[in-house]
Fold:
Amino acid sequence: MADEVPRSWRDPDLLIKALPTVLLQTTCFLAPLVMTFLLTFQRSRNFQLQWSWDLWTWTDVFSKPHYWTILGHTIFMAAATVAICLIIAFPIAYGLATRFKAWENEIKVLITFAFITDATLKIYGWALFLDKNGMANYALSSIGLPPEMVAFLYTDWATLLGMVYSLSAFAIFTLYLSISNIDRSLILAAYDAGAGKFRAHWEVTLPLCKPGIWAGSVLIFLLSVGAFLEPKVLGGGKSPMSAELIRQTFETRVNWPLGAALTLVLMVVSVFIVLLFSRLIGLKRAGLAA
Amino acid sequence: MIARLEGRFIDIVLWGSLAAILIFFYIPIFTLIAFSFQEGRFLTLPFEGISLRWYGELFRNTNALNALWNSTLIAIITTVIATAIGTMAAIAAVRYRFRGTDAFRLLAGVPLAFPQLLLGIVLLLWFSVLGRMLDFSTGISTAIIGHIVYITPFAMVIVAVQVYNFDATVEDAARDCGASSFEVYRYVTIPLLWPGIFSAAIFAFLLSWGNFYLTYSLAGSTRTLPTFIFSGIAIGSSPLYPAIATVIFIPGILLVILANRLRRT
Structure:
């Protein structure tokens, strides 16, 4: 690895490289976030924004249980997505890092393509597949099963399927990276010490890829609290999630302050949950060390 | 004996789950490809017949062609800018240590973990308020800015992997031989980082080309392929949309294969 070279901010070399990013992300990421925060202290009257500087919007947010039910549902769906993604990604990532060597590149291409293809298209493909007159039911009825078996579209299960589908590649990639960084000799040492494959796996491999598990979980969790296409197209908008609620607040109700407040609540609650979990895991690790 | 049985068992589980996940990943993709050849008007089974009719319709549909052009234009501009900024940020973040290195890395990477729909909304608010003050409205250029904010961190991460494995002594050697710092970049640094930069560019293009969330919020009345398809799903669709999807898949898979080749060499 290259050594880190000390640089001062007066050095034009550093300025040229770092300044564009700093400018871009402060003017088009941080500043909009700050403004979103400021907007929550305004009101909306007759679809017009009024600069009133009071807590009216926040009172509204905290007094309507409706918003919080939807938020709870969103968090629950996101947590379920994380768990399922990790379970299905682990064998793939493990295989890629250890046993699929001969086909590694082909497998990576197939996974990457499926991952990077336009989300709208993939979700649309699922809707067609799961539709009452779609592929899944056709296949079921052609082997003699009742087609009602797939009354799956427009339920929470379909939403969950879509979310897992859209995000599981993140878990595959992060787990793959951390498994391939594991020093093989540690696992061989476990074998020498008499551990079977499963025991070595459970006591050596799994703990060592904790950083990958954690990175994947955080990424998937934060991205899935913002899921919008899946609940709308696959879930049929029946049990709305936060992103859909926020979108409606902006589009249908044209209430910017409320939408801004709901956006912030969603972000703050998700980040808080991530921090809480990292604290819990950190404590457990410290406890083990002691 | 037991170890061998265990090994065999693990192989079966791993290859079995690989097969299962690939089927899972490709179900919607093959569903779309199959429906694009449907002759009839409706997206239901059984097929009325197999034809290329909807591909013909696609190339006569000016809205679809317009959306294709907008997507491509946005993607090309985004790719150039995001890859350039991302590459420079990657060098700064990995190679240099300066005041606030960690803050810089965080700021440069955090949009990756920000849900796109919310990023789109936050930016829409920003552009609406600015637009009211400075008198502009959302359109192609605001969509491009949104794409750049979201895609630059991706480009940075991909190039950073290359920078991380980069041997800085080669640069010193060039400098010792009397190369100016521009020449060092032109003839040493950039060529060595090129595979990373190029695959970052390919990913940037694909991410921008297929982006729904940001475009949906930021492009105003301009339609790109993803938003065009979304509006089609909403109205009740015909095999025109699966045909568009299939046309989009072809350059996608070719570019992913190309990016993979580059990173191996």
Notes: The CA atoms of residues 8 and 105 of chain B lie 44 Å apart. Chain B has a mean pLDDT of 86.
